[in-house]
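Annotated sample (chain length 333).
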Amino acid sequence: MKAVLMTAAGSPDVLQLADVPTPTLQAGTDLLVRLKAAGVNPIDTKLRKRGTFYPDQMPAILGCDGAGVVEAVGSAVQKFRPGDEVYFCNGGLGGHPGTYAEWAVVDERFAARKPASISFAAAAAAPLVLITAWEALYDRARLQAGQRVLIHAGAGGVGHVAIQLAKLQGAIVATTVSTPEKTELVRQLGAECIIHYKQTDFVTAIMDWTKSQGVDVVFDTVGGTTFSNSFAAVQLYGDIVSLLEPDPATNWKIARNRNLRISLELMLTPMLQGLVEEQIAQAKILEQCARLIDQGNLTIHVAQTFPLAQAAEAHRCLETGSTTGKLVLIIDS
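Output written by the structure step:
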């Protein structure tokens, strides 16, 4: 099969299209999936630059997100049969092969039926960001109806689905953006307060919006000083959830004085730690999101697609930091 191999850590040029053996079923619960599309995520670019979690297993096939058609099933498979369309987040961290390929093997317990109403490209763009936003807002922050939430980078991959999940929970949403194009997208998704962070201090804007109270929840998808500066935008006893590791130099004084609850979200933990029940729970999130998508209550914004052979170019595009929504590799298998 054709696959994009990461031959070493480095620039996007280390991603090379190659012929590799087609994977085979290894366990009774395995599915062999003919991939139609693969999502491109920041974790892919980070692993490519610094090396995977399994440096002794090189070359590697990156890509956690995939969507495709089940072609064969293991002897113990119960949920799926050949011909079913599925989407999932599995592999691609340097151990189990990822989705930058024509075929993938995934345990049926970690896959969900693809939303019938959207393309394979949109489905492949969805899993990692849906699970991340769901866990961050619903599990970590315990977001409730009527609460105010600030979502940083609301037009990004995680941000644009986080706005929708917050609205579905009945929350009132503020978000930060950098361009008019992104303003229009987040407005369409339901954000009530849109802050152009390059022109306006977001803390000042939030305190004006909330009459100096602060928001109940901040969801930080950016990290760095955005994380620490957000402390002052959260109300007393509020929540802040970040996707990034806090800088060792972070000054925690404001967070402590405001008695904030700090949470960290890494949806890859179950995969990295081999936590089967938690991976099953994440697949159930995808099942719930598929229903929301097919009901017209949740949309996935695909900004641009690339042929599989142009994975390196997709990485270059993502690393500009200016993309809206998601980037996807289209696989002609």
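Annotation: The longest helix spans residues 276-294.
Annotation: The chain has two domains: 2-126+268-330, 129-264.
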